[in-house]
Amino acid sequence: MPIYEYCCPKCGVKFELLRPMSRANEDAPCPTCKNGAKRAVSTFAAFIKSDSGSSSAVAGSGGCSTCSATSCAGCH
Ligand SMILES: [Zn+2]
Known about the structure:
It is a single chain. This protein is mostly beta strands and 76 residues long. It has strands at residues 3-7, 14-18, 28-29, 36-39. It has a domain at 3-39. A hairpin with a 6-residue loop joins strand 3 (28-29) and strand 4. The protein starts with a strand and ends in a 37-residue tail after the last strand. It binds zinc ion. The site of zinc ion has 8 residues, from loops.
């Protein structure tokens, strides 16, 4: 599930919330004042946590083509 960032207009607190994409634009209850906090779109966090709990690093497309190392300083 994606993590969305919300900002409370009343007390200014920022918090993140895991919620389904279909509910991303709904107001989220502020943990401090229970006011409806709006989604902070400008700082949208594109983290996707896998259900297994481990955040697997995605193999970059800029990896080395001549060896299997992801960070390759020796073969270029
Ligand atoms: Zn608040």
